[in-house]
Amino acid sequence: MTRQKTYTVDQALERLKNYCAYQERCHMEVRTKLQSMGMIPEAVDVIVTALIQHDFLNESRFAKSYARGKLKAKHWGKQRIVRELKQREISKFNIEQALKEISEEEYLTSFSALAQKRVAQIKEKNRYKKRKKLADYLLYRGWESSLVYDKVIELVP
Q: 44, 34 in Cβ contact below 8 A?
């Protein structure tokens, strides 16, 4: 049986400072990391509080960064971004602030580029099946159905 390494609060705090400095993290990720390190709940609370006070941990900053990043890198729609942020227990207020970070122009440009790229990849000959495949793909990516269905009809007449 392998023994888990134990950490003092100061050692764990230093590790978590590095963890948070490397990439924006949400409170849930930090708590999960601390629990996996074998920290007791009281120590977890102390460390999370210290990280917030020293601005290593900021939910608002995380949500904004996450929303911008997922739109740019993965071309997710707002619905998918909201769903993922809710899974990370981000507050409704922070989610709304994060969505304000996304410009409407950038959002629609990303949507159009994704739809055009995907329609070119679909080899289906039957136009109704092709429409369904495109619509399912875009809806899964979290784009609003009103946008999706208009774009599907535009791209697959």
A: yes
Within 8 A by CB and 6+ apart from 1, the residues are none
- Tokens standing for 72? 């740019």
| Rounded Cα gap, residues 41 and 37, in angstroms | 12
Q: What is the mean pLDDT of the chain?
A: 93
The rounded percent of the chain whose pLDDT value lies above 90 is 89
Neighbouring CB atoms inside 10 A of 105's CB total: 8
**Tokens matching residue 137:** 């793909």
pTM above 0.85, yes or no: yes
Using only C-alpha atoms, the chain has a radius of gyration, in whole angstroms, of 21
**Angle CA 36–38–40, to nearest 5:** 120
Q: Is the pLDDT of residue 148 over 80?
A: yes
| Rounded-to-integer distance, Cα 23 and Cα 66, Å | 10
Q: What is the pLDDT of residues 91-120, one digit of tens each?
A: 999 999 999 989 999 999 999 999 999 999
Q: Is 153 exposed, middle or buried (0-12, 13-18, 19+ CB in 10 A)?
A: exposed
Is residue 56 a contact partner of residue 20, using CB atoms and an 8 Å limit?
A: yes
